[in-house]
Amino acid sequence: MDHAEVEEKGLVELYHRGLLPPEEEARFEEHFVGCPECAEQLELARGFQKGLRAMAAEDAARAVAAAGLLAWLARRGPAVRWGLGLAVLLLAALPALLLFSQGRRERLAAADWRARAEAQRRTNAELERRLAEAKPRETPRGPANSLVNPLVNTPVFLLAAVRGEGKPATVDLSRAGEALALAVDVGEDLRFETYRATITRAGGATVFEKSGLKPNALEALMITFPSSFFPPGDYRLRVEGVGPDGGAAEVGGYPFRVVRR
């Protein structure tokens, strides 16, 4: 439901009077939550109705009091009648003053509501902007791997830490079947309880990250991937050791090149 439909059908007044069908009432309330203009109109309608009720009650009470007062004034002198007449005029003006004060409070409350709604709208817009600007990680796409049968003779590619311009290890996809494994020798280091592995492509895009890893009985950290996970290209595996206090230290960087011969 948009604001043009609300204005065209006069839905604010119908909602205020309780004349909307349940389904349309629910649609209007969804629109009302995010529309400061409709909220202001509804608040003003409610304030005006309250003022009319107050004036009607005061007019009735004043009429009853006036009937007795006139009978009493008929037995008094001119000075008393003039003084009391002035007092009656002041009392008659009092409801209008009260209604004006109440209407002002209603307008201030509506303005405060609009300010809070606008602040919430700006917060939501900022969150949407940040989400839109956030770049998703560049993850290689491949068919979903569903392991049904046992894997036999899964090729394991042992990676070695390389410093400077050393030659990276080669991972030949033509040697792999459904899966391949990458392994690094982390040794026995009592400083670390677990390890964290991060794989990035050339250019820095992260394609894999996993924490809480532990070496096997041969003190090797081994991770198995579907053979379709890595498109041909250059990659780097970074391994960090994580201590009991949560602090991390890099164990080594392991470049490798994926090819299909």
Could you explain how this protein is built, in words?
By secondary structure, the protein is of the alpha/beta class. It folds into two domains: 34-133; 156-259, Immunoglobulin-like. Helix content is 46%, strand content 23%. The strands form two sheets. It has a five-stranded mixed beta sheet with strand order 2-8-7-4-5, with no helix packed on it. It has a three-stranded mixed beta sheet with strand order 1-3-6, with no helix packed on it. Residues 135-145 have low confidence and may be disordered.
Task: State mean pLDDT (0 to 100 scale).
Answer: 76
CATH topology label of the largest domain: Immunoglobulin-like
Strand order of the largest sheet: 2-8-7-4-5
* Number of strand elements: 8
Q: Which CATH top level class of the largest domain fits?
A: Mainly Beta
Low-confidence stretches: 135-145
| CATH architectural label of the largest domain | Sandwich
Structural class: alpha/beta
User: What's the story with the biggest beta sheet?
Assistant: 5 strands, mixed
Gyration radius, to the nearest Å? 39 Å
> How many helices does DSSP assign?
5
In whole angstroms, the N-to-C terminal distance is 60 Å
| Strand proportion | 15-25%
Order of helices and strands: HHHHHEEEEEEEE
Helix content: 40-55%
What does the overall shape look like?
elongated
When the domains are counted, the total is: 2
